[in-house]
């Protein structure tokens, strides 16, 4: 799943390649991906991309004041194409392709653009056309951006204070903090040397400060690694920089202990027992005690 660092990289990638170009057409192949109908997606044709921004995990293309908002969800991705002039129409349901954005030809006759694809059977990729990004429910309810200057230790202290949620779930809640998903919450907690099952309200002031430092440092490092990386290479770059997530059975880079995994119905988490849980493995979330 693309998270804040990857979406930030895609934002910069599109800013360099799409801003100043005119949209020729937006072809919707997977109709369930389009979540709005007014304004119609056809209204984007003929408009110029004037800016690209990020809201949490949402991509925002400003097209002369009309916004094309993209949420890649769990299995979606953006694929840039240097020339779509020869692209053939695609029948719905026959391909992972969900949306194709075609830009007007350049001076060399090339018509670049990008395609949004989604793997798997659970189709959650979402596209919105709106005059105001805040009209998108997922954006309107976003918590603070962890890389904003306003995200301070005191802000984080206010978030965790009195909250009986386990810290892993709290970090993933977009209404609490915007942009962190399953992978980077594992990475943050490993950096903070904190159990994923620790109750947020139980954090001391020192632990809140350590968690804040881990959040900001982990995300900034990932953003810097992803900066300038081509869209097609971002997934591999993300994987190469992870220290615990999806590394179950491998040695921890910090202490050498074996990284463990806890599985859930539709996801899993990875952690290092020595670094995070006092050496105690969490065999099963439903059976393990919450570690303090």
UniProtKB/TrEMBL annotation:
InterPro entries: FPG_cat, FPG_N, H2TH_FPG, Ribosomal_uS13-like_H2TH, Znf_DNA_glyclase/AP_lyase, Znf_FPG/IleRS
Keyword Zinc-finger (UniProt): yes
Domain annotation Formamidopyrimidine-DNA glycosylase catalytic: ranges: 2-93
SUPFAM superfamilies: Glucocorticoid receptor-like (DNA-binding domain), N-terminal domain of MutM-like DNA repair proteins, S13-like H2TH domain
Stretches of the chain forming a coiled coil according to its record: none
Cofactor: Zn(2+)
FPG-type domain segment(s): 243-277
EC number annotated for this UniProt entry: 3.2.2.23, 4.2.99.18
Enzymatic reactions: Hydrolysis of DNA containing ring-opened 7-methylguanine residues, releasing 2,6-diamino-4-hydroxy-5-(N-methyl)formamidopyrimidine
SMART domains: Fapy_DNA_glyco, H2TH
Superkingdom per UniProt: Bacteria
One GO BP annotation of this record: base-excision repair
Single GO term (MF): zinc ion binding
Keywords: DNA damage, DNA repair, DNA-binding, Glycosidase, Hydrolase, Lyase, Metal-binding, Multifunctional enzyme, Zinc, Zinc-finger
Record-stated family: Belongs to the FPG family.
Name of the protein described by the UniProt record: Formamidopyrimidine-DNA glycosylase
Organism per entry: Nonomuraea endophytica
Lineage start: Bacteria, Bacillati, Actinomycetota, Actinomycetes, Streptosporangiales
């Amino acid at each position: 799943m693309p998270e804040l660092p990857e979406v930030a990289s895609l934002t910069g990638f599109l800013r360099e390649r799409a801003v100043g170009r005119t949209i020729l057409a937006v072809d919707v192949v997977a109709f369930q991906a389009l979540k709005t109908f007014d304004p119609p997606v056809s209204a984007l044709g003929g408009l110029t991309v004037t800016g690209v921004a990020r809201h949490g995990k949402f991509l925002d293309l400003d097209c002369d004041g009309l916004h094309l908002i993209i949420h890649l969800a769990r299995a979606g991705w953006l694929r840039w194409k240097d020339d779509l002039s020869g692209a053939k129409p695609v029948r719905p349901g026959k391909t992972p392709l969900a949306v194709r954005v075609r830009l007007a030809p350049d001076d060399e006759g090339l018509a670049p653009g990008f395609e949004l694809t989604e793997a798997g059977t659970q189709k959650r990729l979402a596209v919105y056309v709106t005059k105001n990004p805040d009209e998108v429910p997922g954006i309107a309810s976003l918590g603070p951006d962890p890389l904003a200057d306003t995200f301070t230790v005191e802000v984080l202290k206010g978030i965790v204070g009195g909250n009986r949620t386990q810290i892993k779930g709290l970090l993933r809640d977009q209404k609490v903090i915007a942009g962190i998903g399953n992978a980077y919450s594992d990475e943050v907690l490993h950096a903070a040397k904190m159990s994923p099952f620790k109750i947020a309200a139980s954090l001391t002031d020192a632990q809140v400060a350590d968690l804040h430092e881990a959040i900001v440092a982990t995300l900034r490092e990932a953003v810097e690694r992803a900066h300038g990386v081509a869209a097609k290479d971002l997934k591999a770059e993300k994987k190469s920089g992870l220290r615990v997530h999806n590394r179950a059975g491998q040695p921890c880079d910090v202490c050498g202990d074996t990284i463990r995994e806890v599985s859930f119905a539709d996801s899993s988490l990875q952690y290092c027992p020595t670094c995070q849980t006092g050496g105690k493995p969490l065999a099963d979330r439903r059976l393990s005690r919450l570690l303090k």
